[in-house]
Design a protein that fits this description.
- This protein is mainly β.
- The strands form five sheets. Strands 5, 6, 10, 11, 12 and 15 form a six-stranded antiparallel sheet that branches. Strands 7-14-13 form a three-stranded antiparallel sheet, with no helix packed on it.
- A hairpin with a 2-residue loop joins strand 2 and strand 3.
C-alpha cells in the first residue's frame, strides 16, 4: 500500500512555523485501462475493446457500472450547427466478462450511447476484464 506524509509551513515576516507531520496510507487502489485490439479501422470493420480493472486493495468492489463513451461524440462545423456523431455501435451479445481469468455470466449491457456495462465485480487483490466488440456504422 502507498504511504504519504504531509507537513505545512507558515512564513510571516521573519518567523517560520511548521505544522505537525500527518502520515497516511492509501488502503484501496482500483485502476482501469481500456485498449482497442487494433489501432485503426475502416468502414464496415469490427473493433474489439478490452477493459482491464485491477484491485490492489483488500476489499472487493461489487456491482460496479462501467460507462464507455466511445460511441458518441459531438461535432460542430459552425456556431449554429452542432451534430452528435455516433461512429461506433456496440455489437449485441459480444460482451465477455472475466474475473481473475475465469469467464463469468454475461454482464448487463445498455448499448447507449454511452455504452453502460453493469454489475462488474473486482475481487480483493484481483482483476476483472471486459471484452466487447463495436462495429463502424455507415
Amino acid at each position: 500500500m502507498a504511504r504519504f506524509t504531509n507537513q505545512a509551513q507558515l512564513r510571516y515576516g521573519r518567523s517560520i512555523a511548521n505544522s505537525n507531520i500527518a502520515v497516511g496510507e492509501i488502503l484501496e487502489v482500483l485502476s482501469a485501462a481500456k485498449e482497442a485490439v487494433r489501432n485503426t479501422y475502416r468502414q464496415n470493420d469490427t473493433i474489439t475493446y478490452v477493459i482491464s480493472i485491477v484491485n490492489a486493495g483488500t476489499l472487493a468492489y461489487t456491482g460496479l457500472p462501467i460507462t464507455d463513451n466511445n460511441t458518441g461524440s459531438t461535432y460542430t462545423d459552425d456556431p449554429y450547427n452542432t451534430t452528435t456523431l455516433v461512429p461506433l455501435d456496440y455489437m449485441e451479445g459480444t460482451a465477455k466478462y472475466y474475473i481473475n481469468g475465469v469467464l463469468q455470466p454475461a454482464p448487463a449491457v445498455t448499448a447507449g450511447p454511452p455504452l453502460v456495462i453493469n454489475g462488474i465485480t473486482v475481487p480483493a487483490g484481483g482483476n476483472a476484464v471486459i471484452v466487447y466488440e463495436a462495429e463502424v456504422n455507415p
